[in-house]
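can u do me a favor
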């Protein structure tokens, strides 16, 4: 009997030791994950390059680009990745379905369809509508179908534009594509979000997403409100290195979304290790210059460093 208890005790001791080692390994693995996450922080820039005539410029090399972070040039040794237009992109189309969009919802749907029509086979897009709530109409897939649910959408409720951008950014963060974009069709005035516009922009930039915006304000609406709408949407676009479109409606609007899809297919993607590694939550300014004359580079204006 004594021998049996002794054996059981040894077994229990062995189980306890294994449990402790497993727990320690789990903690170490978590710590290793944290190290990887911290040391692999990269800034991803989607850069659109045009000539003096506004035409996209292909064939540039990594050495043609100079990146400046807070006025200091980033050495080529800090470039962690460089790819050209052939790389696929993931996008989220955000369709404003709030009550103020009632007279322009059909036009917005038409523009979204035009954008999807221009996607390449390797590109994927999801579609969400937002009013008081945010609802997915189509998951990330290729093809031109807007999604049957989109045609049953009715305009009503408040506007959660900022929350919708945060939601789109979170969805894009799960995607493997390095090039990411959010396309917003809205009259621009947020009335119900929990997130601020600054928070929405920071989250999108942290994801590496450019925010293309189309101002769907009614031309016969309140002039002051329309100006506010344009300012909000233009800020999202300019700070993320994308385009703001003042929608005239009809063919002009459809052409604008076609142009956005073409632009996304003609971008350079550069990933680099930031010069300032401090996790202080502060804004870092970014400027991209080109070695060739008469060319213009457009990209995000900067990023906010992570905060411990």
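np, heres the sequence
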């Amino acid at each position: 009997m004594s021998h049996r208890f002794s054996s059981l005790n040894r077994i229990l001791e062995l189980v306890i030791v294994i449990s402790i080692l497993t727990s320690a390994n789990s903690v170490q693995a978590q710590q290793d994950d944290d190290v990887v996450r911290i040391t692999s922080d990269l800034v991803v820039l989607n850069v659109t390059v045009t000539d003096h005539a506004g035409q996209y410029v292909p064939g540039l090399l990594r050495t043609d680009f100079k990146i400046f972070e807070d006025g200091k040039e980033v050495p080529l040794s800090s470039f962690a990745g460089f790819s050209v237009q052939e790389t696929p992109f993931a996008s989220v189309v955000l369709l404003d379905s709030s009550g103020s969009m009632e007279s322009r919802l059909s036009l917005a749907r038409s523009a979204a369809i035009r954008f999807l029509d221009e996607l390449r086979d390797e590109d994927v897009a999801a579609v969400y509508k937002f009013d008081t709530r945010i609802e997915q109409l189509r998951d990330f897939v290729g093809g031109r179908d807007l999604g049957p649910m989109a045609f049953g959408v009715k305009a009503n409720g408040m506007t959660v534009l900022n929350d919708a951008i945060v939601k789109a950014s979170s969805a894009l963060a799960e995607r493997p594509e390095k090039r990411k974009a959010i396309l917003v069709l809205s009259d621009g005035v947020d009335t119900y979000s929990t997130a601020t516009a600054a928070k929405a922009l920071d989250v999108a930039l942290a994801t590496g997403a450019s925010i293309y915006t189309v101002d769907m304000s009614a031309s016969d609406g309140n002039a002051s409100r329309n100006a506010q709408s344009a300012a909000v949407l233009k800020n999202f676009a300019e700070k993320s290195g994308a385009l703001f479109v003042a929608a005239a409606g009809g063919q002009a609007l459809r052409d604008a979304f076609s142009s956005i899809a073409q632009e996304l297919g003609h971008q350079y993607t550069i990933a680099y290790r930031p010069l300032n590694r401090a996790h202080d939550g502060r804004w870092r300014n970014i400027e991209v210059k080109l070695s060739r004359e008469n060319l213009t580079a457009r990209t995000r204006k900067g990023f906010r460093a992570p905060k411990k």
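Residues 2-40 have pLDDT under 50 and may be disordered. hope that helps!!
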